[in-house]
Amino acid sequence: MSVPIENEKDAQVVEAYIKPQQRLLHDSSVTFEEYHYYALRTRAEEEEIDRNDPDRGKTNILQLIFPAKSGSGVQGKTPTAPAGLSDEEHRSSANANFANASTRAHISDEEWKNASRALRTATWSACFYLITTDILGPFGIGFSLGTLGWGPGIALFTVFGATAGYSGYLLWKMYLGLDSYEFPMKNYGDIAFRVYGPVFRYGVNILQSIQLLCNVGLIIISNGQAISQVSKFKLCYTVCCLIWAIVGFGIGQVRTLQKYGWLANAAVFINLLIMFISMGVIAHSPPNFSIAVLGSAGASTNPDTITPDKNGNYPPIVHYNSLPNPNSLIGSINGLMQGVYAYGGAQLFVEFMAEMRRPRDFLKSMWLAQAFIYTCYMVYGCYVYFWQGQYAYQISYQGVSPYGWQTAGNILAVISGIIAAGLYGNIGIKVLYNNILMDLFKCPPLTTKSGKILWAIIVPIYWSIAFVVAAAIPDFFGLVSVVAAFCIIQFCYSFPPLLALGYFMQRDAIQAEQGEGFDPATGRVVRHDSGLRRWARGFMAGPWYMNAWNVIYLGGALATAGLGAYAAVQGMINAFENPQLNAFTCTSPLNLNA
């Protein structure tokens, strides 16, 4: 194993160095230096492959719009049969259970690396659509601007977009410095584990699992409400929701993100179509006055601006350059949180990088996606707020007055929504599979035949649990707001600078010129100091001003998370003051005449 040695004179050669393939999946004895050493070696190998790839950099516009449905993994050397294995046994090792330590003991170094390479199939263009599908949610931006006003709204959406991109950059830097073919990273919790240890990993995995399960449940329930509205409440509400859980059984069978790129591609264009349709309708018809009291910007900040007079005439549309009602703290915070949540997708970034053929290209995918998303938010949000003002509804396509166009928006949105739910379910199942089934129960990798069968069995169970949890809780949307405040903000804004501080301080504390670091021949790790002294030296050894900025960024993120949690909990308290319906009834909560 890797042995940290604080003094060079005390260094001893480890006679039986434990190779990466012979370790536990999450082995706390592996040091930061060992992870970093193999990561640098993997990055060097990827660069060599890139230099010899004749198709590198030749992606054309059609390949960007229609990314390849599937592809082979990163190509490595063809390994020879290791000692102790016959050729037949060696050929069958591709279907071996690498989660079992006794099996890994007979795997050669090159076989172990090839097993990791085989999982890396996604292209940067497919990753662009995955990121966009994960993050893009423009239909509440007009509402958010209505609660904040032109100046604060545009400024905050710009700041949140930039900081979300910076968080993605930090995750990318840490991934490149800690992931390798020998020690592949598979999810967000792996960064937490390699920087701060197993306790932090457990917390991150639990939060991510709860959030992804709630995201799937939220889309099942919201799609059910959309179908109940389209059917004019003639179809039992429980059936409306159950339909989408069953659809999830099928869409969840897509295992690799590269293949999911085509579905993500469709989801992006469906969302754009909804935007264009609703923009045309909004410009030529009045707002949906009748539902303004249920969830418009005016209802959140200043109800008098949406209340009709005694003759049934609604107040005229108004706009604000600053906060519409400085005394309405909860309303403004809810609008602020819309901006925070609008860019919340970083909890899936590590999973995306883990399946990319060239992880270095993730930065290109991420910044291109963030620029596209920001443009959509600003153009669409400002457009909706300009035409509808304080009547801008939380779900913009439901805020149009013609019923036919409401229906068109609902139908397109449920298709896009179920694709997004499939993406969340895909990652959610992988988090549970990699961290519980493989780690604790030694289940086979998903690349094996038995792993694929197990995946097919788990998918309907996962979607059923998401449906039951979402359906059983009154005011589930309120619960999701609470989960979002405690999870989305952390993954997108709080955890990246916190993890980056630990990563950069440990990386920059390594004094390679003085003999510190990891020796792969012996498994020896040399450190000349430890504890707070080493952490402080690491803080100042690198660009200290970036570390200082990360401290400031972390403080701002935690303060924002506190505001979000306050608003979400207060919203739940207010919601439960009235009787609530769950999804185990035939009566839709949208049916005000029931």
UniProtKB/TrEMBL annotation:
Keywords: Membrane, Transmembrane, Transmembrane helix, Transport. Residues 71-92 are annotated as: Disordered. The keyword Transmembrane helix applies. It comes from Rhizodiscina lignyota. Pfam families: Aa_trans. The chain crosses the membrane at residues 126-148, 154-172, 235-254, 260-282, 366-387, 407-433, 453-473, 479-504, 544-569. The keyword Nuclease does not apply. This is Amino acid transporter transmembrane domain-containing protein. Residues 122-501 form the Amino acid transporter transmembrane domain. It is found in: Membrane. InterPro entries: AA_transpt_TM. The lineage of its organism: Eukaryota, Fungi, Dikarya, Ascomycota, Pezizomycotina.
